[in-house]
Amino acid sequence: MSETTTEQVEQQESDAKIKGGKFLTFFLGEEEYAIEILKVQEIIGLMSITPVPKMPSYIRGVLNLRGKIVPVMNLRTRFGLNEIEDTDETCIIVIQDEEYLMGVLVDKVSEVVDIETGNIEDVPSVGAGEQSEYLAGIGKVDESVKMIIEVRKVLFDVPQAILGSSGEQSENAVEQG
Predict the structure, then answer these.
(1) Using CB atoms within 10 A of its CB, is residue 173 exposed (0-12), middle (13-18) or buried (19+)?
(2) d(CA 60, CA 76)
């Protein structure tokens, strides 16, 4: 059954071109990225993150967010960028996609922008390297560009053990239903 689900998700991803709307923008170094605002649950300041043994290097650990254990991904590490020291502007964007929650560590949050569908272009295949697989498109806003993140690919294409802590309730509900 899980193979069918994976195939269905991949088919939906290939069918769906990113649509315009409101996006939260944030920085990793000098580059500005964007994520659909509807997937953002909240933005929190840097708080205590507990390391978890044997996790991939891009998982910084977990945090306790009002009684829920949320894995925290260092997006710099996930994208293969150099790690830097945390600053006063470093924060965590908590993202929800279906039943899964993931905290994303970013250098700083910028703003909420409205990007129209006509201003979103496909990611060029030349020069983007590994990062291009993590991008859903490139949005043009005024004179700048925002790299729109493919949420499912970046955040939730990870070992099930990482997502298990926040998705256990939903799995139990499916088994009972």
Answers:
(1) exposed
(2) 11
C-alpha to C-alpha distance for 103 and 85, rounded to whole angstroms: 18
- Of residues 48 and 159, more confidently modeled: 48
The lowest-confidence range among 28-37, 118-127, 141-150 is 118-127
Token digits for 97? 């996609």
User: What tokens does 55 get?
Assistant: 């996790």
Tokens 């991904």 — which residue? 73
Q: Which residue has the tokens 């929190």?
A: 44
Smallest CA-to-CA distance from 13 within 152, 140, 133 is with 152
What token pair was written down for 4? 């069918």
What's the full length of the chain, in residues?
177
> What CA–CA distance (Å, rounded) separates 43 from 146?
19
Question: Which pTM was predicted?
Answer: 0.78
Residue 15 CA, distance from chain mean position? 20
Spatial distance between the Cα atoms of 163 and 98, rounded to a whole number of angstroms: 12
Q: To which residue do tokens 């409205």 refer?
A: 114
Q: Token digits for 22?
A: 């409101």
